[in-house]
Amino acid sequence: MSESRTPGSLTPEQVRQYASQLGNQSFWAGMLNGSINFNASYGNTTYSDDVGTHDISTPYNVNIYGGAGFIGPQNSQPDITGIRNGLKEALKRWECRELMQNLLDAVRSKKNPVAKSGVIMDLFEAVVSQGGITRTPPPGSAGYGNPTGKIKNNNAAIFSAVKFKDPSLQLLADIHTTLHELLHLAGYNRYYTDEEFARAVYNNQEYHSRSPYPPYEPALHKELKDPGALGWGAYWNDVLMQKCFQ
After folding, report:
1. Which of 26, 91, 169, 208 is deepest in the core (most CB within 10 A)?
2. Which among 111, 106, 133 has a CA at the least distance from the CA of 236?
3. What mean pLDDT comes out for the span 189-212?
4. Are 191 and 147 in contact (CB under 8 A)?
């Protein structure tokens, strides 16, 4: 782009343009099937995290919050100031703040309360001061985005992959990934799972995801016993995109 801008900033027009693309399942599906080519690829059919190993081979398992991993150097460091500002901008939206509260109220429990009272920016600053936001994937990562560690153990971190050559697109992807993973890290004793968030969204009539709900999609039935499967993650993340970025 020829427009001059401060590094780490996005114009409102760019936010609308890119958020629309990143939240569109067909956009990522096109990258997956090759009809859209941005030098991106899903190189694995499974990924692993603290919950276990997850299958991502079905056509519906398009990781819209992490996107397709860009085949290129992973040494471009995250723009922490830009991510911080992007989160603050998203949280100016009342519907985004309401979604955060509704999701965390739905999944919190006595056995697994919310860390940092669920205040997103406090969770973010805790991560930055502990393990940080890194380009180094944890063992078993598929290369999209992962939470690691725990805030209570002072070792919480977020892996956010390099996905785009364009710094503005990359920053927006990092903001999306960070907000998504912060909600997982909000679990004090264990991560809140994608299944928990997906069921919370499904049970709230205010929200309408454009992604298939795994229990009602035959292609995703094998995911039902996996609380971290990408079908669950895509379902609730679409609402996150709607309320906070689109």
Report:
1. 169
2. 106
3. 95
4. yes
211-228 tens-digit pLDDT: 999 899 888 888 788 888
Residues contacting 237, CB < 8 A, separation 6+: 64, 65, 180, 211
Is residue 41 very low, low, confident or very high in pLDDT (cuts 50, 70, 90)? very low
Where in the chain does DSSP place strands (E)?
Answer: 40-41, 46-48, 53-55, 69-70, 132-134, 145-148, 157-160
User: By CB neighbour count within 10 A (0-12 exposed, 13-18 middle, 19+ buried), where does 62 fall?
Assistant: buried
Provide the residue ranges of all domains of the chain, joining segments of one domain with +.
12-244
Q: Which token pair is 167?
A: 């710094």
Residue at 151: amino acid letter: I
pLDDT the model gives residue 91: 96
Q: How far apart are CA 216 and CA 71, in angstroms?
A: 34
